[in-house]
Structure formats: C-alpha cells, structure tokens
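User: Please predict the structure of the protein below. I'd like the answer in structure-token form so I can feed it into my own downstream comparison script.

Assistant: Understood. Taking the following sequence of 240 residues as input:
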Amino acid sequence: MENLFLFFPMFFTIYLIGYFIVFRNWSPKIRPEAASCFISFAHGTPAVFLATSAILADSNRGFAAPNTEPENSVLDFSISYFTMDLFHYLAFCPGDLLFIGHHLATLFVFVTCRYLVSHGACAILALLVLAELTSACQNAWTLARARRDDVVLAAKLYGLLSPPFYALYSIVRGVLGPCLVYKMCAFYMSGEASGVIPMWVWVSWIVVVVMAISVSILWIFNLWVEFFRERTGKLEKKVT
C-alpha cells in the first residue's frame, strides 16, 4: 500500500508539469489531453519493462501463482497511473463514459489481483505488457494528431506514424491479445486456480479484457478505414 503513496503523487506531479509547463502554450482545449499523454509516457514504456522484469524474475510464475513483491510493485505503479488519469477524465472529460468505464474496469482488475486474491499477477502483467507495448507510439501519434492542422511538423509526424502504429496496434490487440486471453480462459476453466482465485474474480477479469480488446479492435478498424479513405481521396485529387 505504501507504494501508492509514492507513485500517485509522482504521476500527479508529472501531470502538473505537463499541463502548466510543457504544454503551457497549447490551446486550452487540447492541453488536458496533452497532459494525459505526458503521464502516459511516464507509465507505458516503463510498465512494459518493469512488468516483464517482474514476470521473468518469478521462478514460480503462472496464471495462478502467488504475487511476488516486484509484481505487486508494478500493479501499484499502474493503479496509481490509472487513478490519476481517471481523475483527469472526471475533471476535463466527464462525458467520455467509454474511457471512464475503461479506467474503472482496469482498476478493478488490478486492485482485485493486488489486494483481494494476491494471485495471478503473471497473467495480469502479461496483459499489461501487451496493452502498453504501443503506448509510446500511440501518445506521440495522439499529440501529432492534435496539432496537425496548425503545425506542419505535427502533420508530417502524424502521417509518418500512422501506418506503422496502426499495423503494430492491430497485431498486438488483434492477434497477441486474443491469444493470451484464450490461454487464460483455458487455464482458469480447467479449475487449476479454483483454490486461490474465485470463479467470479477470474470471470470478471476475462469479461473486462474481452470488452477492452473488442473496443480496441473496433477503434483501430475505424482508423484504418479513415486512413484508406484519406489516401484514396488524395489519389483521386492527383488523377484529376
């Protein structure tokens, strides 16, 4: 629990630095989103390395194995980040129910794994690695997209990042994610975790993850449609 009192103030401070210093000259409409991306930079890639290290350091790792201290620390790290970002959405985007719901569901998974059952961190952190693998690229893409209409460099960066980001995101969320969820389902349905992780807990984990992956696939599909529509429009203008 003491980790939360370290990590949450850290993310809160990073958010304030992003909002009042790094993006102080940005439009008030996009400054909050930029500050949210700023703390996401501080969480995403570090979480990938920390979670991977914690999983590999656990000689007894498994979907029902007891959480180790390093794994619990990573869970606290992510709980602090998602709590801070949830406050951001409640303050600046209270109508964005999709992201608010996503953060609440994610926090439910992390908190139950960390403080209720204290088992299964290997599975949850593996999902975290996949979820945050594209985080840095997505944040850079989001910032470039926000300024592409008024900054030439941002427009170029947006155009440069879009294809590889879409491709990587599609592979991670559309292929690797479902494969991991399938393995989790097969393991938990076998009953091997029945003594340490109640059925309602692992079922809720699976439901949350499946819904998150489904929304992600729909989101990236719409971006691909928009991408090809823009490319087709540019080709038609060149022809005419």
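That's the full token string. The helical segments are 4-22, 31-57, 69-92, 97-117, 121-132, 135-147, 152-189, 199-239.
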